[in-house]
Design goal:
Blueprint: E1 11-14, E2 24-27, H1 29-39, H2 47-65, H3 87-108, H4 116-143, H5 146-167, H6 171-188, H7 194-217, H8 228-231, H9 240-258, E3 263-266, E4 269-272, H10 276-293, H11 302-329, H12 334-368, H13 384-406, H14 413-443, H15 447-471, H16 476-516, H17 523-541
Antiparallel strand pairs: 1-2, 3-4
GO molecular function: 7S RNA binding; endoplasmic reticulum signal peptide binding; signal recognition particle binding
Family: Belongs to the SRP68 family.
Subcellular location: Cytoplasm; Endoplasmic reticulum; Nucleus, Nucleolus
Amino acid sequence: MARENGGASAMEVDDSKSDPSMQKFSINVLQLLKSAQMQHGLRHGDYTRYRRYCTARLRRLYRSLKFTHGRGRYARKAVTESCVTEVRFLHLVLYTAERAWSHAMEKRQLSDGPNSRQRIHLIGRLRKAVKWATLFSQLCSVKGDSRTSLEAEAYASYMKANLLFEQDRNWDTALMNFKSARAVYEELGKYGDLENQVLCRERVEELEPSIRYCLHKIGESNLQTSEFLHIGEMEGPALDLFKAKLEAVMAEARTQQAASLTEFHWLGHKFPISNAKTRVAILKAQDLEKDLHGPAAESLSSEKRLTVFDKIFAAYNEARSCIRNDLVSAGNAENVKDDLNGLDKAVSALLGQRTIERNQLLVSIAKSKLTKRREEKNEKVTKPEELVRLYDLLLQNTSDLCDLLTSGRDQKPEEAALAEECVLKTLVFQAERCFYLALSYGLAGKRVEAYVLYCRARSLAEEALQRYDSSGSSDEVLQRELKTLHDESRSNSCIEHAKGIMEEVKGPENLSKKISTISLSGTDGKVLFLLLYTKEKTQLES
């Protein structure tokens, strides 16, 4: 019930009129919906959870209003102006529209995209959302105050624009509805409290990409397709339909670009690409890699980088699947098979390199939380054992990549250089693994094991530095990290050695203190008696 009353601050009723039919209700629509969406799934894009919340909310509203549709035989009751005697009737209509909209967005989020039948269902749910949003606007124009009526009108315009946007038609009408909603929120953003002004400005920013896309479709904008990528970096539920359109536009652009991609260049090799699906998948992966290694890469957060890595893996795996299907259908054509095997090796190697980069990103995230204090109650702090596990994964990744590079014939110098780099990374990861394993043993009080592992980490770091100097690499960051690891391993080994000596010296003293506190009358006395008796018996027998 506490959650149901969470929107009370966003809703007021004007009781100045004694006649119930003349009451004017006030609902801060945007604030109410934004709060519900963020608390029930849309913070993480979970439309299924939000749809279930809307369903449960509607059930509670129907029961509390005693506005059920009969027992046994279903007889639907329509919400009309005459039956709106309190604000919860308006909530009924609003959450019904939200439920239909979230159901449509749930279909849009399917991993492979909606098929023809699912798309028909999706558009049907959007039509239902438009129907209920229009009814909500009509009721608010009569039963709501001026602000509520304006917000309801903007909400209905937004839903109509979404339907046309998804149908890929009537771009002029969609543009008109988007602009109508934007104009209302721009005006409302000038008044009210600070929270409401911020929400209205956010909604205006979320609507802007859809407006620019509509202008692009009707030919009134000079915006290039590549520029839509920067617009798509914005976040918000209002942008999810736009992002789906953006992905379709980029897929079409990649298909056109793929016609010119006849060869794939990798470490001195050239492999012909005949399959159009393979070309599109490789182009998609290359476009995503630009986000990670381009000039704007530093501005990306760790979560967004991990999301980009997942998309890259999906694209390269799709390319590998197409290549292997071509291998099956290649028959006895040896030349074609050799080219496809080489292309498969190249794509697998790129996939291995990106996997190593992703796991290194996970290591950097874990290291940042290693020494972090728990400022919040549920904040997770990294343990050294977790870093050991991540370095185990990295060692496996480098081993697999090195085996892949050294396999086969006609090895190019670029492949040999990359294999040598893998060997150097293996040494670095082994040294790092030993360091954090030693840290884990040190925290457990096992001084001897920690000392030996720190010494091993230092020797591995020395070996890696020697190999780095002989390779002529220019990676100064790696060199600095190795020197830091070497120095920390040396200092920590000295600390563990000193702690071990101190514990050994203080061992008898601590033992005597414990014995002096033993009581002869209790359980401790019985244990001491048994120990003394056993010792005396052993001496007599000897």
